[in-house]
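S.,

Sequence below, as promised.
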Amino acid sequence: MGSTQMSHLILLFLAVVNFSAAASGRNESVESYWLLKIKSELVDPLGVLESWSSGAEVCSWHGITCSDDQTHVVGLNLSSSGLLGLISRKLWRVSSLEVLDLSSNYFTGSIPSELGLLQNLRVLLLYSNALSGRIPEGLCSLKKLQVLRIGDNLLSGEITRSIGNLTDLRVLGLAFCQLNGSIPFEIGKLKHLVSLDLEENGLTGLIPDEIHGCVELENFAASNNKLQGDIPASIGKLTSLQILNLANNSLSGLVPVELSHLSNLRYLNLLGNRLSGQIPVEFDQLFQLEKLDLSVNNLSGPISFRLRNLRTLVLSRNDFTGSIPSNFCLRNSNLQQLFLNQNNLSGKFPLQLLNCLSLQQLDLSDNNFEGELPSDIDKLEKLTDLKLNNNSFNGKLPPEIGNLSNLANIYLFDNMITGKLPPEIGKLQRLKSIYLYDNQLSGEIPRELTNCTSLTEIDFFGNHLNGSIPPSIGKLKNLIVLQLRQNDLSGSIPPSLGYCRKLQTIALADNKLSGKLPPTFGFLSQLSKVTLYNNSFQGPFSTSLFLLKNLRIINFSHNRFSGSIFPLLGSHSLTALDLTNNSFSGSIPARLAISINLTRLRLANNYLTGNIPDEFGKLTELKFLDLSYNNLTGDIVPQLSNCQKLEHFLVNNNHLTGALPSWLGSLEELGELDLSSNKFHGEIPAQLGNCSRLLKLSLHNNNLTGRIPQEIGNLTSLNVLNLQRNNLSGFIPPTIQECKKLFELRLSENFFTGSIPPELGRLTELQVVMDLSKNLLTGEIPSSLGNLMKLERLNLSFNNLQKNIPFSLTKLKSLHMLDLSNNELEGEVPSTFSGFPLSSFMGNKELCGPPLVQCSLSRNQDKNRLSNAAVVGIIVAIVSTSTVICLVMVYIMVRIWWNWRRVWVLRLDEQRREEEKWVYGEKTRNGEYWKVNNSMALGCPQDNNNKHDSKTCIFQCKMDTGSTEKTMV
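The prediction came back faster than expected:
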């Protein structure tokens, strides 16, 4: 089909359209017809298109601009009209359009490629919508296009290389999108380009050298991308350039000296890159430069340039050294902002800066400056911000600082400022923030400070201020933060503080303050954080404190408060409450559970009574619960199993009862569990082995029975295991060896039996103590314990351990306390242990060597004892033999005498002989005499194998030597 035929078809189509419009009875042009079609596709919540109707001339419609002869629509401006929907593909029908502005609406979808058919278009503005997709290639066919601004959308993909076809383009705005890829080198073909804005995308790669082709470029912004490589020297050819912003990329190398050729440059921003080297001295030639920001790079060397018209200089967070040059500020300097913080600058306060009479903001913080502040600092009468923190300035704060009438912020913290705060500081009526913390200030807080009625923040933390808080502090009606912690302040809190009704943070901790909280404290309705710990406050709380509905953090620990804690619970927003070490009494209010975001609750060391409230189960954000050292009773409530984020659970030293709940094993975040010194009974739940993050497990001083569960070996992060003073029994499980991070193991005063597992020698991180004393352990001391090279205290006393002390224990070079007493050990004490006291080895009968008796002496004594025994045996044998002989002789004599008497007195002798027969002969024959003696000997048995007697003995030793154990371990 030829071009002539195509033209005929187009004319025919237009004729049909006109005919259709006429047939419908409407006097509209073709353009008005399509515009009404476009309107029907849009959502118009503000009604800006109400004037678009067939009953009005199209040139009178809102946002429409017509040609001079009123025959064509040449402009459509619907910017900031609140329109929703897609950009219509029918817009190409309005073929005479020269300006299309749909910016700052809520259009979604992609940019229609059909817009490339609007060949008369000079200005296309689609920025600040929610458009997505790629930049259509069709836009690059708009030969007359001069302004293309489609940024602040969700556009993605690469910048098309066809962009170089828009040779008439003067403004290209693609900022704040999601574009990626590199900047196409074809950009250099845009010789008439004045503004190129590519910032806030994901562009990568190098800045093309071809950029120098944009000879009319005045604004080049490509900040906040991922551009790499050197800054091309060819940028120095863009002599019309006024703004160059390449901040927050990954550019490296030196700052090109060619940039000094940009004689029209007013704004240069290279912050947040990886540039190195020195600043070119040729920068002195940038006479028009007003703002220079080279911060957050790796630049080094001295600061050696001066710029007459510079208003803002930012060189923060580099590695500049030396001092500020003496000619830095000329008398006609326009410098208003100087930021040199976080470098390595040194020397005294640069007096040359006092010539910068226009200076408003001065930041020399985080450097190595020293010496005193100059008394004529008041020359900088326009100064609003003075930041000298984190240096080594010393001496007193000059009174002349009170002459800086425009001063709003003083940052002098972390220096060595001494002396008193000058009362002249009260002249600073515009002062908003004063940060003097971490200095060596002394004396009282001057009451004149309360004349600075614009103050919002006071921070004097970590000084030596004394005296009382000024009674007139209530004049500071705008005060938001009052930080006076860690000083030597005394007296009570002034009642006038309650009139600082904007206060959000009060920190008065670590002082010597006393008295009661004034009732006016309840006026501080905006108060969010209050810390009063480590003072001497006392008394019960006023009920007015219940009015503090915005409290989030309360720390009143280590004071002398008493009464109920209920007045502190008016807020539903508490995240941390610490009342440790006071004298609070009564029960724990269930109302605490209203603060469902509570993460830290510490009520230890008080006189609280009653049960743990069931309602605590609602505190699902709770991480730290410390109720120790109170008088609480009852069981651990099962509702606490809902507190799955608990990391610290401390209820030790109360009167809690019941069995240890198995649900404790479900607290997977638990790092510290202390249930000691209560009245818990039953077995240790095996489920505790599920608490794999547990660092400390303290169950001592209870009535627990049964065995240590094998699952204890699952606690591989455990540092402290304390099960002493219970009624636990059975063997010590070898699985403890898996707790390789243990540095404290206490199992004393139980009824453990069997031998010490040699696997304990694998606990090589044990340092504080291994205490297995006062049990029923038998067998030898494992030589593997010699592997515990870090161990400082070892107590195996009051057991039934046998055999020698292993020589391997002598490798324990860190050991400074050893107790092996009251066992059945034998042999010689290793010589390296001779420095330990006698009490370390007593109660082992067969043990010898220093500090016990010498082993040679012990052996001699044994020999002596054997010789005496032999002598006694011989003597007994001699006596026995002599007795038998004597008896025989007596018997013979009696027989002779009896025979002789038989003749003369037979009857009488016979009777007497019969008596002797029954009296002596029978007793001797039947052994009744020896039987009686044997019975007497058996009447006091010494059965060393009687376990019952042994246990009773050990138990008695435990009872008698409890105080000894405390002193040794």
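The chain is about 15% helix and 25% strand.

Coffee later?
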